[in-house]
Design goal:
Blueprint: H1 2-13, H2 21-24, E1 40-55, E2 63-80, E3 83-98, H3 111-114, H4 116-120, H5 122-128, H6 145-152, H7 158-164, H8 166-170, E4 178-192, E5 197-203, E6 206-208, E7 218-230, E8 251-261, E9 267-282, E10 287-300, E11 309-322, E12 325-336, E13 346-358
Antiparallel strand pairs: 1-2, 1-13, 2-3, 3-4, 4-5, 4-6, 5-7, 6-7, 7-8, 8-9, 9-10, 10-11, 11-12, 12-13
Length: 359
Protein backbone atom coordinates (compact mmCIF):
# COMPACT_ATOMS: atom_id res chain seq x y z
CA UNK A 1 0.00 0.00 0.00
CA UNK A 2 2.81 2.43 0.87
CA UNK A 3 4.49 1.78 -2.52
CA UNK A 4 1.24 2.58 -4.35
CA UNK A 5 0.74 5.81 -2.40
CA UNK A 6 4.33 6.87 -3.07
CA UNK A 7 3.91 6.37 -6.82
CA UNK A 8 0.62 8.26 -6.92
CA UNK A 9 2.06 11.14 -4.91
CA UNK A 10 5.09 11.34 -7.20
CA UNK A 11 2.87 11.52 -10.26
CA UNK A 12 0.57 14.13 -8.78
CA UNK A 13 3.51 16.36 -7.85
CA UNK A 14 4.79 16.57 -11.42
CA UNK A 15 4.00 19.96 -13.02
CA UNK A 16 2.04 18.36 -15.82
CA UNK A 17 -1.11 19.20 -17.76
CA UNK A 18 -2.58 18.67 -21.17
CA UNK A 19 -2.11 21.68 -23.42
CA UNK A 20 -4.71 24.34 -24.02
CA UNK A 21 -7.47 23.22 -26.40
CA UNK A 22 -6.11 25.63 -29.02
CA UNK A 23 -3.04 23.37 -29.04
CA UNK A 24 -4.01 19.97 -27.63
CA UNK A 25 -7.36 19.81 -29.37
CA UNK A 26 -5.87 20.38 -32.71
CA UNK A 27 -4.81 23.68 -34.20
CA UNK A 28 -2.96 22.72 -37.37
CA UNK A 29 0.52 23.81 -38.30
CA UNK A 30 2.29 26.22 -35.98
CA UNK A 31 0.64 29.59 -35.59
CA UNK A 32 -1.68 30.46 -32.71
CA UNK A 33 -0.64 32.84 -29.95
CA UNK A 34 3.10 32.26 -29.72
CA UNK A 35 5.76 34.37 -27.99
CA UNK A 36 8.03 36.70 -29.93
CA UNK A 37 11.40 35.33 -31.00
CA UNK A 38 13.58 34.68 -27.96
CA UNK A 39 10.74 35.12 -25.46
CA UNK A 40 9.52 32.45 -23.04
CA UNK A 41 6.07 31.87 -21.56
CA UNK A 42 4.67 29.51 -18.96
CA UNK A 43 0.89 29.09 -18.65
CA UNK A 44 -0.65 27.17 -15.73
CA UNK A 45 -3.62 25.13 -16.92
CA UNK A 46 -6.39 23.06 -15.33
CA UNK A 47 -8.52 20.71 -17.44
CA UNK A 48 -11.65 18.78 -16.46
CA UNK A 49 -13.01 16.27 -18.97
CA UNK A 50 -15.65 13.57 -19.04
CA UNK A 51 -15.36 10.98 -21.79
CA UNK A 52 -16.75 7.62 -22.85
CA UNK A 53 -15.90 4.79 -25.24
CA UNK A 54 -18.34 2.45 -27.01
CA UNK A 55 -17.02 -0.63 -28.83
CA UNK A 56 -20.03 -1.59 -30.91
CA UNK A 57 -18.11 -4.03 -33.10
CA UNK A 58 -17.46 -6.47 -30.22
CA UNK A 59 -19.98 -9.12 -29.20
CA UNK A 60 -20.52 -7.89 -25.63
CA UNK A 61 -20.24 -4.20 -26.66
CA UNK A 62 -17.94 -3.13 -23.79
CA UNK A 63 -18.03 0.48 -22.59
CA UNK A 64 -15.81 2.71 -20.52
CA UNK A 65 -16.55 6.03 -18.85
CA UNK A 66 -14.14 8.34 -17.03
CA UNK A 67 -13.91 11.75 -15.42
CA UNK A 68 -10.42 13.25 -15.57
CA UNK A 69 -8.92 16.17 -13.66
CA UNK A 70 -5.53 17.37 -14.95
CA UNK A 71 -3.24 20.00 -13.42
CA UNK A 72 -0.05 21.65 -14.66
CA UNK A 73 1.22 24.00 -17.36
CA UNK A 74 2.57 24.71 -20.85
CA UNK A 75 6.14 25.94 -21.50
CA UNK A 76 6.58 27.77 -24.81
CA UNK A 77 9.52 29.51 -26.51
CA UNK A 78 9.16 31.86 -29.49
CA UNK A 79 11.37 31.13 -32.51
CA UNK A 80 10.34 33.89 -34.89
CA UNK A 81 8.41 33.63 -38.18
CA UNK A 82 5.42 32.37 -36.19
CA UNK A 83 7.39 29.37 -34.98
CA UNK A 84 7.69 27.98 -31.45
CA UNK A 85 8.97 25.17 -29.29
CA UNK A 86 6.60 23.98 -26.57
CA UNK A 87 6.56 21.38 -23.83
CA UNK A 88 3.09 20.36 -22.67
CA UNK A 89 2.52 17.93 -19.84
CA UNK A 90 -0.30 16.70 -17.66
CA UNK A 91 -1.12 14.43 -14.75
CA UNK A 92 -4.18 13.84 -12.60
CA UNK A 93 -6.80 11.41 -11.35
CA UNK A 94 -9.11 9.48 -13.65
CA UNK A 95 -12.36 8.20 -12.10
CA UNK A 96 -13.29 5.01 -13.95
CA UNK A 97 -16.69 3.44 -14.61
CA UNK A 98 -16.82 0.14 -16.48
CA UNK A 99 -13.41 -0.77 -17.88
CA UNK A 100 -10.37 1.49 -18.23
CA UNK A 101 -9.56 3.28 -21.45
CA UNK A 102 -7.09 1.26 -23.53
CA UNK A 103 -5.00 1.37 -26.68
CA UNK A 104 -6.98 1.12 -29.92
CA UNK A 105 -7.76 -2.38 -31.16
CA UNK A 106 -7.36 -4.25 -27.87
CA UNK A 107 -8.65 -7.82 -28.18
CA UNK A 108 -10.11 -9.41 -25.06
CA UNK A 109 -8.43 -12.81 -24.76
CA UNK A 110 -10.94 -15.15 -23.12
CA UNK A 111 -9.54 -18.41 -21.72
CA UNK A 112 -13.08 -19.76 -21.74
CA UNK A 113 -12.92 -19.96 -25.54
CA UNK A 114 -9.83 -22.15 -25.27
CA UNK A 115 -11.78 -24.66 -23.23
CA UNK A 116 -14.80 -25.09 -25.44
CA UNK A 117 -13.89 -28.73 -25.98
CA UNK A 118 -13.42 -29.18 -22.25
CA UNK A 119 -16.99 -28.06 -21.65
CA UNK A 120 -18.22 -30.93 -23.81
CA UNK A 121 -16.04 -33.47 -21.91
CA UNK A 122 -15.83 -36.18 -24.55
CA UNK A 123 -14.71 -38.64 -21.90
CA UNK A 124 -17.65 -37.66 -19.74
CA UNK A 125 -20.03 -38.42 -22.57
CA UNK A 126 -18.53 -41.88 -22.71
CA UNK A 127 -19.27 -42.30 -19.02
CA UNK A 128 -22.86 -41.23 -19.55
CA UNK A 129 -23.19 -44.12 -22.00
CA UNK A 130 -22.70 -46.49 -19.08
CA UNK A 131 -26.23 -45.67 -17.93
CA UNK A 132 -27.72 -47.35 -21.01
CA UNK A 133 -25.13 -50.09 -21.48
CA UNK A 134 -27.22 -53.28 -21.53
CA UNK A 135 -24.19 -55.54 -21.21
CA UNK A 136 -23.49 -54.31 -17.67
CA UNK A 137 -26.87 -54.62 -15.93
CA UNK A 138 -25.34 -57.15 -13.56
CA UNK A 139 -22.93 -54.55 -12.27
CA UNK A 140 -25.61 -52.48 -10.48
CA UNK A 141 -24.53 -53.89 -7.11
CA UNK A 142 -20.83 -54.08 -7.88
CA UNK A 143 -18.63 -52.56 -5.18
CA UNK A 144 -16.77 -50.53 -7.75
CA UNK A 145 -19.98 -48.82 -8.90
CA UNK A 146 -19.08 -45.90 -6.64
CA UNK A 147 -16.37 -45.08 -9.15
CA UNK A 148 -19.08 -44.72 -11.76
CA UNK A 149 -20.91 -42.29 -9.49
CA UNK A 150 -17.78 -40.24 -9.40
CA UNK A 151 -18.08 -39.77 -13.13
CA UNK A 152 -21.62 -38.50 -12.70
CA UNK A 153 -20.19 -35.82 -10.47
CA UNK A 154 -17.85 -34.71 -13.24
CA UNK A 155 -20.31 -31.95 -14.20
CA UNK A 156 -19.50 -30.31 -10.87
CA UNK A 157 -15.72 -30.52 -11.33
CA UNK A 158 -14.14 -27.41 -9.83
CA UNK A 159 -12.02 -26.68 -12.89
CA UNK A 160 -15.01 -27.03 -15.16
CA UNK A 161 -16.96 -24.58 -13.04
CA UNK A 162 -14.09 -22.13 -13.21
CA UNK A 163 -14.16 -22.16 -17.01
CA UNK A 164 -17.91 -21.85 -17.14
CA UNK A 165 -17.89 -18.81 -14.91
CA UNK A 166 -14.83 -17.15 -16.42
CA UNK A 167 -16.83 -14.63 -18.40
CA UNK A 168 -18.60 -13.46 -15.28
CA UNK A 169 -15.56 -13.33 -13.06
CA UNK A 170 -13.04 -11.64 -15.31
CA UNK A 171 -14.77 -10.42 -18.48
CA UNK A 172 -18.00 -8.78 -17.38
CA UNK A 173 -17.77 -5.98 -19.93
CA UNK A 174 -21.41 -4.99 -19.45
CA UNK A 175 -20.80 -3.79 -15.89
CA UNK A 176 -20.51 0.02 -15.99
CA UNK A 177 -20.57 0.63 -12.24
CA UNK A 178 -17.90 2.83 -10.62
CA UNK A 179 -14.64 0.86 -10.35
CA UNK A 180 -11.73 2.91 -8.99
CA UNK A 181 -9.55 5.99 -9.39
CA UNK A 182 -6.58 5.63 -11.75
CA UNK A 183 -3.90 8.18 -12.70
CA UNK A 184 -3.26 9.39 -16.25
CA UNK A 185 -0.50 11.58 -17.63
CA UNK A 186 0.52 13.37 -20.81
CA UNK A 187 3.89 14.71 -21.98
CA UNK A 188 4.47 16.28 -25.40
CA UNK A 189 7.29 18.16 -27.10
CA UNK A 190 6.15 20.14 -30.13
CA UNK A 191 8.33 21.99 -32.64
CA UNK A 192 6.76 24.40 -35.14
CA UNK A 193 9.36 26.10 -37.39
CA UNK A 194 6.66 28.34 -38.86
CA UNK A 195 2.91 28.88 -38.78
CA UNK A 196 2.14 26.03 -41.22
CA UNK A 197 4.22 23.07 -40.05
CA UNK A 198 4.56 21.28 -36.72
CA UNK A 199 6.27 18.10 -35.52
CA UNK A 200 5.51 16.53 -32.13
CA UNK A 201 6.29 13.48 -30.03
CA UNK A 202 4.34 12.44 -26.94
CA UNK A 203 4.03 9.93 -24.13
CA UNK A 204 0.71 9.01 -22.48
CA UNK A 205 1.25 6.97 -19.29
CA UNK A 206 -1.77 5.51 -17.49
CA UNK A 207 -1.49 3.89 -14.06
CA UNK A 208 -4.10 1.23 -13.14
CA UNK A 209 -4.36 1.27 -9.35
CA UNK A 210 -5.59 -2.31 -8.84
CA UNK A 211 -6.45 -5.58 -10.59
CA UNK A 212 -10.06 -5.56 -11.74
CA UNK A 213 -11.64 -7.58 -14.55
CA UNK A 214 -9.40 -7.25 -17.61
CA UNK A 215 -7.49 -4.36 -16.03
CA UNK A 216 -4.15 -5.26 -14.45
CA UNK A 217 -2.47 -3.11 -11.83
CA UNK A 218 0.52 -1.32 -13.28
CA UNK A 219 1.56 1.31 -15.80
CA UNK A 220 0.15 1.33 -19.33
CA UNK A 221 2.23 3.20 -21.90
CA UNK A 222 1.46 4.83 -25.23
CA UNK A 223 3.91 6.77 -27.38
CA UNK A 224 3.33 8.62 -30.63
CA UNK A 225 4.70 11.09 -33.18
CA UNK A 226 2.81 13.42 -35.52
CA UNK A 227 3.50 15.80 -38.40
CA UNK A 228 0.89 18.43 -39.34
CA UNK A 229 1.13 20.64 -42.44
CA UNK A 230 -1.38 23.41 -43.12
CA UNK A 231 -2.04 23.79 -46.85
CA UNK A 232 -3.40 27.33 -46.43
CA UNK A 233 -2.80 30.11 -43.95
CA UNK A 234 -5.04 28.40 -41.37
CA UNK A 235 -7.05 31.56 -40.76
CA UNK A 236 -10.46 30.72 -42.18
CA UNK A 237 -13.14 32.70 -40.32
CA UNK A 238 -16.61 32.67 -41.83
CA UNK A 239 -17.66 35.58 -39.60
CA UNK A 240 -15.27 37.82 -41.55
CA UNK A 241 -17.03 37.10 -44.82
CA UNK A 242 -14.82 34.27 -46.03
CA UNK A 243 -16.59 32.30 -48.74
CA UNK A 244 -16.17 28.96 -50.46
CA UNK A 245 -13.19 30.32 -52.39
CA UNK A 246 -11.32 30.51 -49.06
CA UNK A 247 -11.86 26.88 -48.04
CA UNK A 248 -8.31 25.94 -49.00
CA UNK A 249 -7.07 28.13 -46.15
CA UNK A 250 -8.58 25.67 -43.68
CA UNK A 251 -7.20 22.48 -45.19
CA UNK A 252 -4.34 20.53 -43.60
CA UNK A 253 -2.59 17.16 -43.84
CA UNK A 254 -1.41 15.10 -40.87
CA UNK A 255 0.49 11.87 -40.33
CA UNK A 256 0.48 10.18 -36.91
CA UNK A 257 2.07 6.93 -35.70
CA UNK A 258 1.35 5.34 -32.29
CA UNK A 259 2.36 2.28 -30.19
CA UNK A 260 0.72 0.94 -27.03
CA UNK A 261 1.62 -1.41 -24.16
CA UNK A 262 -0.66 -2.91 -21.49
CA UNK A 263 0.23 -2.67 -17.80
CA UNK A 264 1.61 -6.24 -17.84
CA UNK A 265 4.08 -5.26 -20.58
CA UNK A 266 2.14 -6.80 -23.49
CA UNK A 267 2.70 -4.88 -26.74
CA UNK A 268 -0.80 -4.09 -28.04
CA UNK A 269 0.27 -3.06 -31.53
CA UNK A 270 0.70 0.13 -33.54
CA UNK A 271 -1.18 2.17 -36.11
CA UNK A 272 -0.45 4.90 -38.64
CA UNK A 273 -3.05 7.55 -39.49
CA UNK A 274 -2.61 9.68 -42.65
CA UNK A 275 -5.43 12.24 -42.63
CA UNK A 276 -6.91 15.11 -44.56
CA UNK A 277 -8.44 17.75 -42.31
CA UNK A 278 -10.38 20.97 -42.42
CA UNK A 279 -10.50 23.63 -39.72
CA UNK A 280 -12.35 26.93 -39.47
CA UNK A 281 -13.81 29.50 -37.08
CA UNK A 282 -17.48 30.54 -36.85
CA UNK A 283 -18.90 33.83 -35.57
CA UNK A 284 -17.59 36.53 -33.29
CA UNK A 285 -17.53 34.01 -30.41
CA UNK A 286 -14.55 32.38 -32.14
CA UNK A 287 -16.09 28.90 -32.21
CA UNK A 288 -13.31 26.69 -33.57
CA UNK A 289 -14.22 23.56 -35.56
CA UNK A 290 -11.87 20.86 -36.85
CA UNK A 291 -12.78 17.77 -38.86
CA UNK A 292 -10.37 15.14 -40.18
CA UNK A 293 -10.36 11.53 -41.34
CA UNK A 294 -8.54 8.85 -43.28
CA UNK A 295 -7.36 5.22 -43.31
CA UNK A 296 -5.86 3.63 -40.20
CA UNK A 297 -3.12 1.10 -40.97
CA UNK A 298 -3.21 -1.10 -37.88
CA UNK A 299 -0.80 -3.85 -36.82
CA UNK A 300 -2.15 -5.87 -33.84
CA UNK A 301 0.21 -7.27 -31.24
CA UNK A 302 1.10 -10.97 -31.59
CA UNK A 303 -0.92 -11.71 -28.42
CA UNK A 304 -4.14 -11.27 -30.43
CA UNK A 305 -3.39 -13.72 -33.23
CA UNK A 306 -4.84 -11.21 -35.73
CA UNK A 307 -3.36 -9.98 -39.01
CA UNK A 308 -2.64 -6.47 -40.21
CA UNK A 309 -5.68 -4.58 -41.42
CA UNK A 310 -6.84 -1.17 -42.63
CA UNK A 311 -9.58 0.57 -40.65
CA UNK A 312 -11.08 4.07 -40.91
CA UNK A 313 -10.55 6.76 -38.25
CA UNK A 314 -11.74 10.32 -37.93
CA UNK A 315 -12.36 13.10 -35.45
CA UNK A 316 -14.64 16.10 -35.02
CA UNK A 317 -13.56 18.75 -32.49
CA UNK A 318 -15.32 21.93 -31.39
CA UNK A 319 -14.01 24.51 -28.91
CA UNK A 320 -15.08 27.99 -27.83
CA UNK A 321 -13.30 30.44 -25.50
CA UNK A 322 -15.28 31.87 -22.57
CA UNK A 323 -13.18 34.34 -20.59
CA UNK A 324 -10.28 32.47 -18.96
CA UNK A 325 -11.82 29.12 -19.93
CA UNK A 326 -12.21 27.16 -23.14
CA UNK A 327 -15.09 24.74 -23.56
CA UNK A 328 -14.46 21.79 -25.87
CA UNK A 329 -16.06 18.61 -27.18
CA UNK A 330 -14.83 15.88 -29.52
CA UNK A 331 -16.04 12.71 -31.24
CA UNK A 332 -13.67 10.03 -32.55
CA UNK A 333 -15.38 7.37 -34.70
CA UNK A 334 -13.47 4.36 -36.10
CA UNK A 335 -14.74 1.64 -38.40
CA UNK A 336 -13.38 -1.83 -39.11
CA UNK A 337 -14.55 -4.07 -41.95
CA UNK A 338 -12.73 -7.11 -40.56
CA UNK A 339 -14.65 -9.82 -38.69
CA UNK A 340 -12.20 -12.05 -36.79
CA UNK A 341 -12.04 -13.94 -33.45
CA UNK A 342 -12.17 -11.38 -30.66
CA UNK A 343 -12.74 -8.56 -33.15
CA UNK A 344 -15.83 -7.74 -35.20
CA UNK A 345 -16.92 -5.64 -38.13
CA UNK A 346 -18.45 -2.32 -37.16
CA UNK A 347 -17.98 1.00 -35.36
CA UNK A 348 -16.21 2.15 -32.23
CA UNK A 349 -16.85 5.60 -30.77
CA UNK A 350 -15.01 7.78 -28.27
CA UNK A 351 -16.70 11.00 -27.15
CA UNK A 352 -15.65 13.60 -24.64
CA UNK A 353 -16.39 17.09 -23.39
CA UNK A 354 -14.84 19.39 -20.84
CA UNK A 355 -13.33 22.74 -19.94
CA UNK A 356 -9.78 24.06 -19.76
CA UNK A 357 -8.82 27.01 -17.54
CA UNK A 358 -5.69 28.99 -18.47
CA UNK A 359 -4.14 31.35 -15.89
Amino acid sequence: MSRKRTLLLALLLLPLIQGRPSVAHGSHGGGGDVPEAGEFEFTPVVTLEGHAGFEQNLDDKPKHYALDGLFGGVFQWGLGSGGSLSIEAAVGPSLVWGEAEHFYGKVHIDDHDDHGDHADHGDHADHDDHDDHDDHDDHDDHDDHDDHDDHDDHDDHDDHDDHAGHDHAGHDHGDTSYKRTDVRGFLQVRYAPNDRLSVSVDWKPYFVTKDQGDDIQGLKNEIGAEIVWALGDGDLNFSLGDGLESLADGLFLSLEHRHGWESDGTWMGNYTDPRLGFGFIIGSDQISVKLDGGPRFYTPGSYSGLKQRTDFAGELEVSVPVGQATLFAHWQPTYSSVNAPGWGEGWQHHVGTGVTFSF
